[in-house]
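ok posting inputs for the zinc ion job
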Amino acid sequence: MPEIHAERRRQLRGRVAAEFGAVAFVITDLANIRYLTGFSGSNAVLVLGTEPAGDLLATDGRYVDQAAIESGDLPVLIDRATLAAVVDTVAPGPVVIEAGTTVGAVAAIRSRCGEPLVAGPIIEELRSVKDATELVSLELACRATSQAFEALAQEIVIGVTELDLARRLEQLFCDCGGEDRAFPSIVATGANSAVPHHRAGRHRLAEGDLLVIDAGARADGYHADMTRTWVVGREPQEWQAEIHRHVLAAQTAAVAEVAEGRSARDLDSAARGVLREAGLEDRFTHGLGHGVGLEIHEAPSIGPRATGSIMGNMAFTVEPGIYLPGRGGVRIEDTLVVTDAGPRVLTEGSRGLRVVGV
Ligand code: ZN
Ligand code: ZN
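and the output
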């Protein structure tokens, strides 16, 4: 797919030329490099020149073959001192760097090229709108995720630990077409379900517990993200059913707002408004969602302080939750993509408060 990467570099080159009078954009963020070149190794620097012929990918000797396979259209510089070696090839003149460039890399660049200019999140903005190739990978990751959640739901037994479920789910991700987990799975049962970012531990599933599972598969480097809340072993208690009903209503309201041109903040407000009416707004302690793609958290950010607008082919999560400390919590999360016809939810499967472990 070298044409796709060349096209992405062309788009970026146009923006860099318009906004900076620089001779090169020195890119060190690995997800940005993968997006622009296809290269997925763990050490790389990309120099984007003012002309396509000036582009150069640098990495070290471990990746000679991989760089040739993944980024065959680009010249590759192999050097253990990767950054210094590639920066030495840049013609005299101002260079641009990403805002997230490490202090050490900035120092190395400054010593060779002078004080660099710092770009805004222009690559991240390009990445937030997915092309057809990316959507295929994201759909694959989301399908593997949905199928694995369904398979897991059918085999849960009371008494297993959160870690047991996390490991099994991650195996299922690969069985269902994923290449790996997208991030360390959150499996939280009982009072742990009130902790939004609880990590799976040795706590055992007990009858009557809420069970929050927030996890995703990765495919072709693309990350899925999905959360379901179930109840263990018996029909839910009234308070469990009630908070689940409110979270589901909040998620449904936010998803219904998804359309090109809406402000990201409006989506968050739609969910938060439903929870406010239920008197539970202060129990929704995080933003509504985040973009997904080559990283599990990327642009756009969907929250009360978000400033951006929703664009066609953006892919992001919608994940309201209610957390009652010491008792339990509910979160429902889906990954969706914005189409002309509105939202298309990629993580399918019932959102109901399902009884598992019977
Ligand atoms: Zn999640
Ligand atoms: Zn998420």
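notes: Residues 225, 290, 317, 319, 333 surround zinc ion (ligand 2) (CB under 6 Å). Residues 132-155 form the longest helix (24 residues).
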